[in-house]
Write a structure and sequence with these properties.
By secondary structure, the chain is mainly α. It has one domain: ChaB (Rna Polymerase Sigma Factor, Chain: A). The protein is 51% helix and 5% strand. It is built from six helices and two strands. It has a two-stranded antiparallel sheet with strand order 1-2. Strand 1 and strand 2 form a beta hairpin. Helix 2 packs antiparallel against helix 3 and helix 5 packs parallel to helix 6. Pfam families: ChaB, Rho_N. This is ChaB family protein.
Length: 146
């Protein structure tokens, strides 16, 4: 591929192309969509059209300000990496967009919003895993619906 040959995620106006965005990003705020699309386009240019790497960069940029809650991305209270893998770049365990560094109270509120049963008896790592599992379930259901 030639430099910049990957499929752009933004229009000439700078707005994201919704049909080019991942489903969880499509269901998110316009700001989250712009963040993903602009990071993706910049990474395609930077990494000579490598779309896989551009997707990783775009998700990394999105995870700095947003956490995945259910089938979409919601703004985090505090900017920064959501897990050790986001922090270091490689290795470590990913939590698939769940803000594993959030307080237990914040995780409990997210679990309540998602309707996770038994959440009050869970420790923080168990809450993160339960939220991750429920996010995946909701996303899969939304994809089957479309």
């Amino acid at each position: 591929m030639q430099k910049g040959e990957g499929m752009p995620k933004t229009k000439k106006s700078g707005k994201p192309k919704k049909d080019e965005l991942p489903s969880t990003v499509k269901r998110s705020s316009k700001k989250a969509q712009r963040t993903f699309a602009k990071a993706y386009d910049a990474a395609v240019d930077e990494y000579d059209g490598n779309e896989e790497r551009a997707h990783r960069v775009a998700y990394s940029a999105l995870k700095q300000k947003y956490a995945r809650v259910g089938k979409k991305w919601k703004r985090k209270d505090k900017k920064g990496p959501s897990d050790s893998r986001s922090e270091g770049g490689s290795g470590g365990k990913t939590h698939e967009g769940v803000d594993a560094k959030a307080t237990k109270d914040k995780l409990l509120k997210t679990a309540r919003r998602l309707g996770i049963k038994g959440r009050s008896a869970m420790r923080k790592p168990e809450l993160v895993e339960a939220i991750k599992k429920e996010n995946k379930r909701e996303t899969d259901a939304a994809r089957r619906k479309n």
